[in-house]
Amino acid sequence: xxxxxxxxxxxxxxxxxxxxxxxxRTSRPSWLRSLHYxxxxxxVLLVLLLLAIGIVGTLGHFGSLGHSSHLPxxxxxxxxxxxxxxxxxxxxxxxxxxxxxxxxxxxxxxxxVWVSLTGWDVVQKYLP
Length: 128
Hints:
80% helix
């Protein structure tokens, strides 16, 4: 989860950098967009990996899912990450997707807080 939070932080930094460059009409480094895409792809992979680990671990430990609010929080975050990634792909061809992308990422911050707090409760169940 820590790597996912780091990827989100790096995405926020590079995203704000690109936003400022666009709104102030200044040039941005040519590598910035590629770096932002790389961090975004990493976040997608990390979130999907965490989803798989969570499902397998919960099924292995408890035999079923849905023991806490961590499952809906996790599915919410996975959905937001996938929506953000999908909207990012279409920003160039459909400019309104930029608003969807930015709005989704703001809500994603709240989702990451929620999934982190509920995840802490789940971790406490595994500790002796």
